[in-house]
Amino acid sequence: MCGIAGIVNLKEAEAPSLEQVVAMISPLRHRGPDESGVYLDTRAGLGHLRLSIIGIDGGTQPIGNETGTLWIVYNGEAYNYLELKEDLLARGHRFTTRTDTEVLLHLYEEYGPACLDRINGQFAFAIWDAVKGELFLARDRVGVRPLYYTFTPDGRLLFASEIKAILAVAGRRELDAQALSQLFVFWSTLPGRTFFQGVEALPPGHYLRVAGRRSAPVSYWRIPHFCEQEIPRGELAEAADSFAALLDDAVRLRLRADVPVGAYLSGGLDSSIIAALIARHCKSRLKTFSLGFADPAFDESSAQDEMVTRLGTDHRRVLVEDAQIRTLLPETVWHCEQPTLRTSPVPMYLLSSLVREEGYKVVLSGEGADEMLGGYNIFKEAKIRQWWGRLPGSSLRPRLLERLYPYVFRDPSRGRQFLREFFAVDPRQLDDPFFSHAVRWGGGARNLTFISKGVREQLEGYDPREELVHLLPDGFAGRDFFSRAQVLEIELFLAGFLLSAQGDRVAMAHSVEMRHPFLDYRVIESAFRLPPHWKMRGLAEKYFLKKACRDLLPERILKRAKQPYRAPVRSLFTLAAADYVEELLSTASLKASGYFDPERVGRLFRKVLSVPAGEFDNMALMGIVTTEILHRQFVAASSWKGVPVVRPDLVCTPLGRKGGGAPLRVRPNALKEKP
């Protein structure tokens, strides 16, 4: 993985400078500590920081084509680059490096935007056409790799892997009130939105072409939907074997690297399957990494140990203490650039640090299986509520929810009464296209009461659910409830939180690349061709996946009830630490930032401190704290200003600009001390 950034003038203006591009890439050094490079002409400046994984020698970016008319900066992996290269060689293209970066450049040269359909990978890249004066930005199908951009009032387009790079030279340092409301309702922002006014995220599965004026992103891929005639009618066992072979091939492709590849091993079904498949292909002993928690309610060490014994891996584990979560939360937020309702990114931040300390740059993980194959409680919850709605007088069906949320319903008598009130179903709700997520979103929307009067006035008349309606795929309302739930979970929570705050950001904070075989687009399309009742048989999650991978795992792992990955939240507030949390939640601090009502937040804080609060209370307070942290880091101050200045290893200047057409090596003293 890498970090990319750039500036393009959409109208006549002073050419981007080396200092400006360096100012953008310097805060992203964690994304690419191995090499750096810059391209400059009279219209565009491109910057790159490299984490060398494929074609280690000779892959310094930006990379140009033979004529110097096209230039690319690239963050990602095209796992099928060898096959793509063979096709391009047959079509007369010639290569000077062994990188997949150069393959993508020639692929675009040959096919234009249609090249995206041919790439099997995770990517965010920019290609500058110096002849046409056109910039092409693209992002992978499900949004594994981030890409942000903004159009400035003075006629420039800025883009980068992280928002802090954009804010280093332009952009409004102001949080978006609508994005804040989206956080509390959806647990993430909607596709294309960020928490910063005027800064947009290129949505997953989209590209953007810009030449001389603003333009809008274009979709090239959406989560597939197959009509009934396209759903396989054969035997489940036959389909399971075909799926297992496809997943095995997805793993094989993701082992392509010129550096060692490890694996995350949580002890759950998904990561255990991936580790077992890697072991099939590994010529050397596989190294695995996992989290352990001091709090046994969150710990899965025994299941991890069973898989380690089964596979004979060289295993490393980091034990997470509650105090570490509190200490590292601000640093994690700085890398994530978004508030969060959960503490779960912090342990993943610690885990990637362990990976890097062990000398590894690449790990495979099991993200995506729950979304594609029915592993989440929210799918079960929707199914139970659907049954309940069809028989409202049932006393047994609502009690099934106790199995899903034992950490919520610890007091059976009190919990059951709460359950009936909180999850109650009106049969008329069954036709709501958002039925699966209505409870979650309704609980989140109630936490908007903590927002200040001033922010509520800004949100007058705004409903984030109405905005979501306009982003849904065609025919969404006509799909079965399970498919609708999957789309919502993938396009909002997976892309907006799991692959970002809990994935790319905390991994790349320590220069670690995560690869996700379950998110191979072929695996996704295969999963969406399956009948819903194959994925979840009754309330048995991932039934089909367990059939497909039954020979890979020990019986206990195969039959083990899913334990959702969670990290301690309440202890963040109850630890007796004289540090930042209490000060952030003080009346003076909340008034100064202006996002939240100090009196209501004070009551919530006291409640959380005095009694074991509900899940939504803890999450609300977490969202408030992390919003305040984000404000201090990016609005009240410029926390990226203290980072060391990058000294580019290479600067490319084409003909017509000072330096001629040959790449120029930059002397260390050619740059100012600070961006």
Characterize the structure shown.
- By secondary structure, this protein is of the alpha+beta class.
- Helices cover 40% and strands 14% of the residues.
- The chain has 28 helices and 19 strands.
- Helix 9 (322-336) packs across helix 10, helix 9 (322-336) packs across helix 19 and helix 18 runs parallel beside helix 19 (500-508).
Structural class given helices, strands, pairing?
alpha+beta
Strand content: 5-15%
Query: What is the spatial order of strands in the main beta sheet?
Result: 10-8-9-1-3-2-18-19
Counting DSSP E segments of at least 2 residues, the number of strands comes to 19
Q: Uncertain segments of ≥5 residues (pLDDT<50)?
A: none
What is the mean pLDDT?
90
In this structure, how is the largest beta sheet organized?
8 strands, mixed
Distance between the termini: 24 Å
As a percent range, the share of helical residues equals: 25-40%
Number of helices, where a helix is a run of at least 4 consecutive DSSP H or I residues = 28
Q: What is the C-alpha radius of gyration, as a whole number of Å?
A: 25 Å
Backbone shape: globular
